[in-house]
Amino acid sequence: MSHDRAAAWSLLVEFTPSQPLRRHALSVEATMRALARSRGVTDPVEVETWGVVGLLHDFDYERYPTEQDHVWRGMEILRERGWPEPVIRAVGAHAFYTGIERIQPMEKAILAADELSGFVGACALVRPSKRVADVPVESVVKRMKDKAFARSVDRGYITRGAEEWGTPLPELVAIVIRAQVAVAGRIGLDGAPAEELADAPTPPEPEAG
Length: 209
Ligand SMILES: [Fe+2]
Ligand SMILES: [Fe+2]
Description:
Number of strands: 0
Order of helices and strands: HHHHHHHHHH
Shape: globular
Number of helices: 10
Bound molecules: fe (ii) ion
């Protein structure tokens, strides 16, 4: 079996019945691909691999949500199923508590993409239009300081993600917003609730935002 985007989607849905978590995977995938392109990655296979890391980073979370298990079990399963080591390492690098150092750009990208993609989504849903296309960069940056807003999002991950990625936060936010716009309908950020993400077929690739 080849370890491509379609394989990543089937592994994700095998472990993840939850619709919000499937949408989170698609949203982080879109950001990962945008980050790859923003660093000059043009090879479509490589762009896809960055996206695959986004799709898979939380695939074990619904089944194994604790810090004792999440990411560790996922990495084991990926290894058993023959996923390439750079993908496994990047998946492992998305949580601070694994202690896996982020060295490769793809490893830094998953930290930069993960929590911020969710946060930008939360910012979209409080707008009257509920469209991510209408979210100004400044409002995201401002809400970062509002502790009561989207409490579950760890700001430390976002700040550190931007630092390690080496881009000022507003620039990173702009990339994330554009990436979410490209998949907005599928992830419920286009003014209407998203349709069910079925196990099959694999959702279409996000267009370059
Ligand atoms: Fe996670
Ligand atoms: Fe995540």
